[in-house]
């Protein structure tokens, strides 16, 4: 794969695929600029190198139709403020008006195209639509890791029709940290997996077992494993149809000599509310009418100790229902343990990112992935079409 810093952009028309899928309020104001900020290093670099920069993104799921609330127009001001330059917005992403505007561009100009998903060809990875996009540019740069797990015209088919294709800095970081975590990690390598359901994470667990030295399981999904091992788990989240799968995963870990750590105690409450009276109990003694909503103090110590001496840690999924204060300690303290371990830490998944931010520890992590679904599919060992297209 080529990276943006290995190609010539001076005077070239550069098509940059980004993820500006920003949150907006009902009035159409952008309420968070994190995704725009994430591609600013790529944008500034391209401008410094004299590119004529054509930026394209999706926003929401308009399903091939124009949906006024999903226009990228409100992003113009955000982008313009961040790069301290005017940005020309075009109300389509292909067609004669777009071609004419691009033909007039000078070095250092920026155009933001309208939502790619207003065109039916985008989600279908349609070659004809991709050709129209490709006709706008000399160079293609992909910086939209968050959509790499879905083949779309703007991240897959387009690469067939543009002579020079490369990854921007955001995508470069994702690729390089992924390699450090999964391809040639410094060992010991630990994976800490939490969140709600086992069923969402089977593929990931199966793949990780092949690579890691330790697996630490917390969150709601831990209760399915605890039940599979014969514990009463009360009203805790438990997927009855996953019990055999859970046993199979534990067996596989044993065969591979992977240390598989489950909670030994839990914070329980009669209801999942911030006001509920929370207690700590051993996982063997969860009453029938109680819900396990966080890992307990003995588990925090067990898991924190397991992270000591680890050289690389991959973390996805909170250890408990961290959104509610009485059940947030496990996630926050484990975030601290990851930070204290000194290991290279690679974090992914929207909730984990939110939890780490709430704990005030984002800056202590080595890398927080920008892709939720894409990061998980990568950990599952799947090929990501957006990455594969650049590697071709
Ligand atoms: P996921 O998207 O699968 O990573 O799940 C994240 C969600 O799992 C968060 O919203 C947490 O509140 C929730 N969660 C974590 N631990 C538990 C638990 N013990 N019981 C119920 N939900 C949980």
Task: Explain what the structure shows.
- With 392 residues, the chain is an alpha/beta fold.
- It folds into two domains: 4-172, Phosphoglycerate kinase, N-terminal domain (Rossmann fold, 3-Layer(aba) Sandwich), CATH 3.40.50; 185-379, 3-Layer(aba) Sandwich (Rossmann fold).
- 34% of the residues lie in helices and 16% in strands.
- The chain has helices at 34-38, 40-48, 75-83, 96-103, 120-123, 127-134, 169-183, 202-209, 221-228, 243-255, 297-307, 329-341, 350-358, 373-379, 385-391, and strands at residues 13-17, 52-56, 88-89, 110-112, 139-142, 164-167, 189-193, 214-217, 259-261, 265-269, 279-282, 291-295, 312-316, 344-348, 367-368.
- The strands form three sheets. A six-stranded parallel beta sheet has the order 3-4-2-1-5-6. Strands 9-8-7-13-14-15 form a six-stranded parallel beta sheet, with helices on both faces.
- Helix 4 (96-103) links the parallel strand 3 (88-89) and strand 4 (110-112).
- Helix 8 packs parallel to helix 14 (373-379) and helix 11 packs parallel to helix 12.
- The longest helix has 15 residues, at 169-183.
- The chain is elongated, with a radius of gyration of 23 Å.
- The mean pLDDT is 97.
- Adenosine monophosphate (AMP) is lined by residues 195-197, 200, 219-220, 237, 292-293, 317-318, 320-321, 323, 349, 351.
What is this entry, summarized?
The protein is an alpha/beta fold. The protein is built from 15 helices and 15 strands. The chain folds into 2 domains: 169 residues, 3-Layer(aba) Sandwich (Rossmann fold); 195 residues, Phosphoglycerate kinase, N-terminal domain (Rossmann fold, 3-Layer(aba) Sandwich).
